[in-house]
Design goal:
About 30% of the residues lie in helices and about 15% in strands. The protein is of the alpha+beta class. It has one domain. Strands 1, 3, 4, 5, 8, 9, 10, 11, 12 and 13 form a ten-stranded mixed β-sheet that branches. A hairpin with a 3-residue loop joins strand 10 and strand 11. Helix 2 packs antiparallel against helix 3 and helix 4 runs antiparallel to helix 7. Bound molecules: zinc ion. The site of zinc ion has 7 residues, from helix 5.
């Protein structure tokens, strides 16, 4: 990309940098939000799995995944400490190192930063996501809006794939922009038919980061966190998102053994909030963020959440992996232990976008996804 980039593109990006810098309020917000990602309200906690059906001996759809967890310790971990490269990119810009396009930034990094700044300074960005209370928004409508007007705007390639089981249901985004989404439908299958598997709602960017759309059920009583993390997750059942995260991390490790670290994220989003989950399939470490609000009380987009989402959707370039503290304390999620009977499925036999012959996906009802589990005969070890 660095060598083949057009002059026009480069100039456009420099304009974004300069325009943003001239807006003192925006610059202050960016500075404060970067600081907030190092604070307690954005902090992550480490999870330990209590049991799971990842190695049940038959295929289990993600929507039926069971993965109850508890918090590992009272300790919280800085969100931005997982993204030292992301922090460095934003800090360098804030500190006004003059020539952004030469020494300090590769053109790829500049491209990522310009996407963030353009989104942060777009005064109309929230409009496509705001919903008139009288409008009956379905889960599919919301999935499209988030993919088209939120996540893809922050990712390096702007590309995204929507689960093609909804192919006939939506041809255009319904926010009023009238834009076609037909070309974004595709096979979003992920996993292995003998273990956890299914079709994710959205895959974002060239790293195909999964986004799971969840309902708005209240937090179950007695779930995992103590009171020092305000809101912990979006729906009554985060197990699905945890299963996606674990499978996606193993898949990336298999597909990209060249990665410097295997701390891989997954996003769960509701109509109001976004949660981030991370799993390191090399060191068996599982992390959960608090819920980040999509909107401010005045209906504008929450910029702290935008910054966090930017880091996560571009994890391939900005995530630095687990911290030394996590490594030294030998925290383990214990997925390896609970899935030991079928761990080879996860280590060696996961795939993406290959479909599952045995899976029947039922039509989604608004906000409540219920899928049939593909229980069948136990899979023989030799078949795996
Ligand atoms: Zn739209």
């Amino acid at each position: 990309m660095a060598t083949g980039e057009s002059v026009a593109k480069k100039l456009k990006r420099e304009c974004v940098f300069e325009r943003f810098r001239l807006n003192h309020e925006e610059m202050e917000d960016l500075k404060n939000n970067l600081k907030s990602l190092d604070g307690k309200n954005s902090a992550l906690c480490l999870l330990k799995i209590l049991s799971c059906n990842a190695a049940a001996g038959y295929g289990v759809l993600f929507s039926m995944a069971a993965c109850p967890t508890e918090r590992q310790s009272a300790e919280l971990h800085s969100f931005i400490s997982l993204f030292t490269r992301g922090k460095q990119v934003v800090s360098s810009y804030i500190e006004n190192r003059d020539n952004l396009t030469t020494n300090d930034y590769s053109s790829y990094t500049s491209n990522l930063l310009s996407k963030l700044l353009a989104f942060l300074s777009d005064k109309d960005a929230a409009e496509s996501l705001q919903v008139n209370p009288s409008y009956k928004l379905t889960e599919i409508d919301w999935t499209v809006r988030l993919a088209h007007h939120y996540f893809s705007r922050l990712s390096a390639t702007s590309s995204y794939t929507l689960d093609n089981h909804h192919h006939a249901e939506k041809l255009f985004c319904d926010c009023g922009c009238g834009e076609s989404i037909i070309e974004h439908y595709g096979d979003t299958s992920l996993g292995n038919g003998a273990g956890w598997h299914g079709y994710v709602d959205i895959l974002i960017g060239n790293s195909e980061l999964p986004v799971v759309i969840q309902g708005e059920s209240p937090v179950s009583p007695g779930r995992r966190h103590s009171t020092d993390v305000k809101k912990n997750y979006l729906g009554s059942d985060p197990d699905q998102a945890l299963a996606w995260t674990i499978v996606f991390s193993f898949l990336q490790k298999k597909l990209h053994p060249e990665y410097k670290n295997f701390l891989i994220p997954c996003i769960a989003a509701s109509k109001k909030d976004i949660c981030f989950y991370f799993y390191d399939s090399k060191h068996d470490i599982l992390l959960e963020s608090p819920a980040f609000p999509i909107f401010n009380p005045d209906k504008s987009l929450n910029k702290l959440t935008l910054l966090a989402t930017w880091c996560v959707v571009n994890y391939k370039y900005l995530c630095s992996g687990i911290t030394d503290t996590m490594m030294e304390n030998d925290y383990k999620a214990e997925f390896f232990k609970h899935a030991s009977a079928r761990i080879s499925i996860y280590r060696d036999s996961l795939s993406i976008s290959r479909g599952f012959e045995t899976v029947k996906r039922t039509r989604l009802e608004p906000w409540h996804m219920k899928c049939e589990v593909t229980h069948g005969k136990p899979v023989d070890e030799e078949q795996i």
